[in-house]
Design a protein that fits this description.
single chain; 5 helices; alpha+beta; 136 residues; 2 domains
């Protein structure tokens, strides 16, 4: 069971996973060594699965951020899933979901032309509804 200190540690690491254990300890009122021990326990128990970075996609040339609801009329989803595996440059996440649609894709594209090409190819495997992110 996680206590209040563990939750504060997770909150701090979520904001800055590069924080030193000494700094983390100060923020949660522990020594650096005690904070490191807590973090190690959270890692060992699987609560912390890994660390990551936040990348500015626009600065990398990915100007379009889109969510695409996927509708498949049959229970045979393999053609769609096979197609999606070939598009890993554009797909951030492919979530199988409940509700009206079967999946929701989170994607990035460098241009409207490439988005259009992706959608034309996608339409051979599934119907879709597109939403483009305007602002975060």
């Amino acid at each position: 069971m996680l206590d209040r200190t563990d939750l504060r540690i997770l909150d701090e690491l979520s904001m800055n996973s590069r924080i030193t254990m000494k700094e983390l300890g100060k923020k949660v009122h522990l020594t650096g060594q005690a904070a490191a021990s807590r973090v190690a326990k959270l890692e060992d128990s699987g609560v912390i699965e890994g660390y990551t970075i936040k990348v500015n996609q626009v600065k990398l040339g990915w100007f379009i951020h889109a969510f695409i609801n996927i509708y498949i009329k049959t229970t045979h989803h393999e053609p769609y899933l096979s197609y999606i595996k070939t598009q890993d440059n554009y797909i951030i996440n492919n979530f199988k979901i409940s509700g009206d649609s079967c999946y929701i894709l989170e994607c990035k594209f460098p241009s409207n032309e490439r988005l259009n090409q992706f959608l034309e190819e996608l339409n051979h495997h599934a119907n879709y509804r597109l939403s483009i992110v305007i602002n975060k």
